[in-house]
Structure formats: structure tokens, C-alpha cells
Design goal:
Blueprint lengths: L11 H19 L5 H27 L6 E4 L11 E2 L1 E2 L10 E2 L1 E2 L2 E2 L1 E2 L4 E4 L2 H13 L1
Antiparallel strand pairs: 1-8, 2-7, 3-4, 5-6
């Protein structure tokens, strides 16, 4: 199943159903006739449901679709003391011209196992191809 690029990522109906289900689980746990083992099982299910809802909300907020490309930063080759730096090349191949990227006044820490998410996998690669022709 493919999601078209340029379309908003929305889970409105699914989130409504999951939220309703969550409410039903909470009511079930509050019910005095619910046994302790059933309450514990329901609590585990509710916990997983809370995580699923939060994941879908995050995908909506950041517009992450099934077409997104996810890259996991590998461990450094040289040593465990190595660090990764996210750099802006400022349109230059000269490394002295590059600047480290900041967000909210702080450099972005890129550690092994950090995930980079490219929302639409086709956009960056086509941009890179057009830049390499210049």
C-alpha cells in the first residue's frame, strides 16, 4: 500500500476509535466486578494502546507516512569516542565554510542509533541529482 506524496497524513477516524476503545478499557478497570488478573491484563493492553495512539499522533504531527525513509545512524568506525556532527555545507565543497546545525540555540546531537526520517524519500534524491548536474 502506497501513500501519495503531498497528501496530509491523517489518522482521525482510527484515533477516534482507539480513543473510544481506551475509554472502554478504563471503564472496565474501574468496574468493581473486574477481577485483579483481568484488571492487570486490561492495564497492559491500555498501556500498549496509549503507545499506539501516541505513535499515530506523532506521525500526524510530523507528517510521517509509509513512504518515509528511515536511516539509523551506525556506530562510528574509528572509536567509541567519535562523535557525529550535523553540518550545513553552505553550498560549498570547502569544509572550512561548513557550519554546524543548531536548533533552539543548541547543536544537534547525532548519536549512534539516532533515526533520521526523510518524509518523502523521492524529494531529496531528486534534489541531490539536480544539484550534482550543476
Amino acid at each position: 500500500m502506497s501513500i501519495q506524496s503531498g497528501r496530509d497524513v491523517k489518522f482521525t477516524q482510527v484515533l477516534e476509535k482507539l480513543t473510544k476503545w481506551r475509554h472502554e478499557l478504563v471503564e472496565q478497570m474501574r468496574n468493581p466486578s473486574t477481577t485483579q488478573p483481568a484488571r492487570e491484563e486490561t492495564l497492559q493492553l491500555k498501556s500498549q494502546l496509549d503507545q499506539a495512539i501516541a505513535c499515530l499522533q506523532m506521525c500526524e504531527r510530523y507528517q510521517i507516512s509509509l513512504n518515509a525513509k528511515v536511516i539509523e545512524i551506525p556506530p562510528p568506525n574509528n572509536s567509541c569516542l567519535s562523535q557525529y556532527h550535523l553540518m550545513d555545507d553552505c553550498g560549498s565543497i570547502e569544509r572550512d565554510c561548513w557550519t554546524e546545525v543548531e536548533a533552539n540555540g543548541k547543536f544537534i546531537a547525532v548519536l549512534p542509533k539516532t533515526l533520521l526520517i526523510q518524509r518523502d524519500a523521492g524529494v531529496l534524491s531528486s534534489t541531490a541529482k539536480s544539484n550534482s548536474k550543476e
